[in-house]
Design goal:
mainly alpha, Growth Hormone, Chain: A, 2 domains, 7 helices, globular, membrane
Length: 167
């Protein structure tokens, strides 16, 4: 099912939607946990938020990075890039799994606020830096990155010129 959805909606849009959904779910979990002692029905809010968090993960950040990594690299460095991505994925899973209880003890009901903050950073990074790779060849994707690099270089040169004119 995910393969058809990715081909229809696009990698970047699903990734961003998944991150935003996870962010909203993490905020809802935090609110649910903070207000649980005042309102018993907040336990249902927390449960629904957990289910939505998992659903949004499965729509975006779960599978999409594997598509994108495979499409961002040419045939030569692709295996190494996928190995690095896999290592980072499992290392982060291990760190979260090992540290979550300690962080939960330290932060109490605000533990998911940390996840919300990280999800916001991931969303902003993906929004500004990750290109859409749907239906594009490696050469087309590489051209997008070259264009961005040239635009950034031209902007830096313009700033340098303005600074030298002002001095």
């Amino acid at each position: 099912l995910q393969v058809f959805l990715v081909e229809k909606a696009g990698r970047r849009s699903l990734f961003l939607a998944g991150l935003m959904g996870m962010l909203v779910s993490a905020v809802a979990m935090t609110v649910g946990l903070v207000l649980l002692s005042q309102f018993a029905w907040m336990s249902y809010v927390s449960m629904v938020a957990i289910f939505l968090f998992v659903i949004f993960f499965e729509v975006g950040p779960g599978p999409i990075p594997w598509f994108i990594v495979a499409e961002l690299f040419s045939q030569g460095p692709r295996p190494a890039a996928i190995a690095v991505a896999g290592f980072c994925n499992w290392a982060c899973n291990f760190i979260v799994g090992m540290c979550f209880q300690y962080i939960a003890d330290l932060c109490g009901p605000y533990v998911f606020a940390i996840f919300a903050a990280l999800l916001l950073l991931f969303f902003l990074f993906a929004y500004f830096k990750v290109p859409e790779t749907k239906g594009k060849s490696f050469e087309e994707i590489a051209a997008v990155f070259r264009r961005r690099k040239l635009l950034a270089k031209a902007e830096t040169e313009m700033q340098d010129l303005r600074a030298s004119e002002e001095a």
